[in-house]
Design brief:
Layout (H helix, E strand, L loop, with lengths): L1 H21 L16 H10 L30 E2 L3 E2 L2 H9 L1 H4 L12 H11 L51
Antiparallel strand pairs: 1-2
The protein binds heme C (HEC).
């Protein structure tokens, strides 16, 4: 009795932890964010459209196809299908109608609507997104040298008085 309840409690908290981990997918960097795209919906669309018959898709169970390239670390991919910059602007139309972008491609249109393609693209851009987070969140860093006077045409740079570069008597000839 007691043991059964204890096991149920443990099971329930493991489930909660599991779910929390799921919704914690790293956000892609700004240039890979897809307007209107919800990654978790994208993941289930990938399953229901059967992308896994042709692709290995990271995070999608059973997606082990080897017809197309593996969709792994996709946020780090520079070229989409080897021909276009890998950005939401290109990926969303690609997912809707790959043949329109590359008549030679082996990927058929599988019938995604634009809204669905946005969800799928949002999911693909969570793959490998974590290492791309190089900038700290928060206000922009103070730029160095903001206090320096703007040089006029014909001026010589005067060094940085605040850092003592132009201290007289160092053999420098400033002006
Ligand atoms: C019939 C097989 C097939 C199906 C189904 C298929 N693909 Fe593809 N896919 C391919 C092939 C082949 C390529 C390589 C195309 C090329 O490089 O011209 C490709 C390329 C891609 C690329 C570009 C990869 C890269 O290297 O940048 C993405 C992204 C992609 N597919 C996503 C999907 C998604 C998402 C689905 C499901 C909605 C899907 N594919 C369904 C065969 C398929």
């Amino acid at each position: 009795m007691m043991v059964g309840r204890l096991l149920r409690t443990i099971g329930a908290s493991a489930l909660t932890i599991g779910l929390a981990a799921c919704s914690d997918a790293p956000a892609p960097p700004a240039h890979l964010q897809v307007a209107g795209g919800e990654p978790e919906r994208g993941r289930s669309l990938i399953r229901s459209y059967g992308c896994g018959t042709c692709h290995v898709v990271e995070g999608v169970r059973g997606a082990r196809g080897t017809v197309g390239p593996p969709l792994v670390d996709y946020a780090g991919r520079k070229l989409l299908a080897g021909i276009l910059p890998n950005t939401p602007r290109n990926l969303v139309p690609w997912l809707i109608d790959p043949v329109a972008l590359d008549p030679q491609t082996g990927m058929p249109s599988v019938g995604l609507t634009e809204a669905e393609a946005r969800h799928v693209a949002a999911y693909l851009y969570t793959l490998g997104a974590a290492p791309l987070q190089v900038y700290p969140n928060g206000p922009p860093l103070e730029l160095r040298g903001r206090e320096e006077p703007v040089l006029q045409a014909g001026d010589q740079p005067t060094g940085r008085p605040d850092r003592g570069d132009a201290t007289p008597g160092q053999g420098r000839t400033e002006r």
